[in-house]
């Protein structure tokens, strides 16, 4: 009986935490915004494939990856060429083409106030954690042109492109003992098509893909690095034995 009550209590607490209207995440215990750690895994090929799909569908309309070829993505992510062309190249591109966009830079400046950045290297320049938090922390702000703001990049010119999936949230503030307003989390004011868990997984997939794109060889580099360290260790040991052999007679 007690075990059942405990389960019901835990379930109720969980629902309270994830239910619409509850203040959720990204605040530390002392008040204020606290970024989360992404903990993404670029060795997860299924996640990389999903991330490529989400990127091509939701990000490529504005953000190019002009240093990546469709062929390289297909090869690295183990995607058949016909699947790549049919599902991830939407305007008749060839596999040898770079992942570019059709939006002219001048139009981008007119619409957003600046040229939209290329995201090939954003995984290296900003880091996976920054991207993860950026895609999670859009919130309503009537003082901006787009109607939204972002905790990772204040006054971002980019609107929340994934709002239909995440939903619309507002930032929640409370007064501390000194009467100052401190950030305590986000409150969902309009449901999206995804649950919080589904949206989080999608963001992690996009983060994985951008992390991979910024350094495609990173997993191979790390794997080779282990063998290099082993070689250095063995070589150092053999060098020490040779040193002992050379100096044995001299010390006598």
TrEMBL record:
Pfam families: Cytochrom_C1 (PF02167). It comes from the Bacteria. Keywords: Heme, Iron, Membrane, Metal-binding, Signal, Transmembrane, Transmembrane helix. Residues 1-27 form the signal peptide. It is found in: Membrane. Its main location: membrane. The chain crosses the membrane at residues 224-243. PANTHER family: CYTOCHROME C1, CYTOCHROME C1, HEME PROTEIN, MITOCHONDRIAL. This is Ubiquinol-cytochrome c reductase cytochrome c1 subunit.
């Amino acid at each position: 009986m007690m075990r059942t009550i405990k389960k019901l209590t835990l379930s109720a607490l969980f629902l309270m935490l994830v239910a619409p209207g509850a203040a959720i995440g990204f605040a530390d215990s002392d008040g204020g915004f606290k970024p989360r750690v992404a903990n993404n895994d670029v060795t997860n090929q299924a996640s990389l494939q999903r991330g490529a799909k989400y990127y091509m569908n939701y990000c490529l309309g504005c953000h190019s990856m002009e240093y990546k070829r469709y062929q390289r993505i297909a090869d690295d992510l183990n995607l058949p060429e016909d699947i790549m062309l049919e599902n991830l190249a939407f305007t008749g591109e060839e596999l040898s083409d770079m992942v570019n966009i059709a939006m002219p830079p001048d139009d981008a400046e007119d619409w957003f106030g600046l040229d939209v950045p290329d995201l090939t290297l954003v995984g290296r320049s900003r880091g996976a954690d920054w991207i993860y938090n950026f895609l999670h922390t859009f919130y309503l702000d009537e003082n901006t042109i787009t109607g939204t703001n972002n905790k990772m990049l204040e006054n971002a010119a980019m609107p929340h492109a994934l709002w239909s999936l995440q939903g619309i949230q507002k930032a929640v503030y409370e007064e501390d003992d000194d009467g100052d307003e401190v950030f305590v989390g986000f409150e969902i004011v309009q449901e999206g098509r995804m649950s919080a868990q589904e949206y989080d997984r999608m963001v992690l997939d996009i983060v994985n893909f951008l992390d991979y794109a910024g350094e495609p060889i990173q997993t191979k580099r790390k794997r080779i690095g282990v063998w290099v360290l082993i070689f250095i260790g063995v070589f150092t040991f053999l060098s020490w034995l040779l040193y002992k052999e050379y100096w044995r007679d001299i010390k006598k």
